[in-house]
């Protein structure tokens, strides 16, 4: 099981929380940095991590991540499910998704499942 703290670490370590309504080439409010919490313990974990990032000056720009209570979860549309697997030759998958995944693998190898 993955701890909430690990999820927060990976969340902030896997994207740029200083870009407003943008991640990489994607732009719009649907690409904003937002961290959802379900209780006070989770909110404290997120807020504490943000404070740590600011104190350690990890980013030169202001962190703009919204910290918001989770009200309702929406599953992605069916065409988004397994998108990379179904569309391996798609230019976005090849030029954005795969490099992003490879950066994740390099940064967090200890979180990857071992192949059997």
Q: Please, how many domains?
A: 2
In which order are the strands of the major sheet placed?
Answer: 1-2
What is the CATH top level name of the largest domain?
A: Alpha Beta
Q: Kindly report the CATH topology of the largest domain.
A: Peptide Methionine Sulfoxide Reductase, Chain A
Q: For the report, how would you describe the main beta sheet?
A: 2 strands, antiparallel
Number of helices: 4
Tell me how many strands there are.
Answer: 4
* Low-confidence runs of at least 5 consecutive residues: none
Structural class: alpha+beta
SS strand fraction: 5-15%
User: How do the SSEs run, as a string of H and E?
Assistant: HEEEHEHH
CATH superfamily of the largest domain: Peptide methionine sulphoxide reductase MsrA
Give the SSE layout.
Elements: H1 4-13, E1 22-23, E2 26-27, E3 34-37, H2 40-55, E4 66-69, H3 83-86, H4 91-107
Parallel strand pairs: 3-4
Antiparallel strand pairs: 1-2
Helix pairs in contact: 1-2
Describe this structure in words.
This protein folds into 2 domains: 1-70, Peptide methionine sulphoxide reductase MsrA (Peptide Methionine Sulfoxide Reductase, Chain A); 75-116, no CATH class. It has 4 helices and 4 strands. The protein has 116 residues and is α+β, with helices and mostly antiparallel strands. The strands form 2 sheets. A two-stranded antiparallel ribbon has the order 1-2. A two-stranded parallel sheet has the order 3-4. Helix 1 (4-13) crosses helix 2 (40-55). The protein is globular. The longest helix is centred in the last third of the chain and has 17 residues, at 91-107. It has helices at 4-13, 40-55, 83-86, 91-107; strands at 22-23, 26-27, 34-37, 66-69. The chain starts with a helix and ends in a 9-residue tail after the last helix.
């Amino acid at each position: 099981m993955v701890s909430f703290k690990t999820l927060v670490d990976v969340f902030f370590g896997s994207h740029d929380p200083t870009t407003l309504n943008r991640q990489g080439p994607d732009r719009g409010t649907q690409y904003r940095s937002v961290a959802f919490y379900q209780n006070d313990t989770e909110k404290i974990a997120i807020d504490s991590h943000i404070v740590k990032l600011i104190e350690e000056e990890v980013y030169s720009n202001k962190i703009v991540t919204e910290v918001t209570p989770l009200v309702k979860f929406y599953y992605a549309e069916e065409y988004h499910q397994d998108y990379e697997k179904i569309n391996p030759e798609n230019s976005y998958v090849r030029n954005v998704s795969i490099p992003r995944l490879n950066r994740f693998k390099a940064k967090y190898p200890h979180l990857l499942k071992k192949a059997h």
